[in-house]
Amino acid sequence: MSKKLIILLLILSTVAISGCTMNTEAEKTFGEKDPATTEDLYLVNATGEHYDRNGTEYYFVWGYVGNRAPVPASNVEITAQFFSENGTLIGTNTTTPYRPSTIPEEGESYFFAGFKDPDQKIASYKISLSIK
Q: pTM surpassing 0.85?
């Protein structure tokens, strides 16, 4: 065999052994983690209450959203739906985590959402979590 062919075979075998040509199922870089999903998010706790803010009555909900994923969760949306005593939807407010805005891996972030309620008709709320 010629020297050029032997050198070429050595280079090709080195590349093959190094893993550079190896693909995983998801075609990810070695060690890359899956991004956080909506299923990784959970409501740690939430509290709702009426507040007077500069003469206007609001119903505020606040609490914490958790992230079970081993990676940060970004682009999280928190949707609060506000209901009357008989279950009628009064309003909706969509917000993002406040502090920090990206929920850390296996961590939590504070949130709050409010809705004008001058007649204090809001009696309950529902929180939905998603990643956009």
A: no
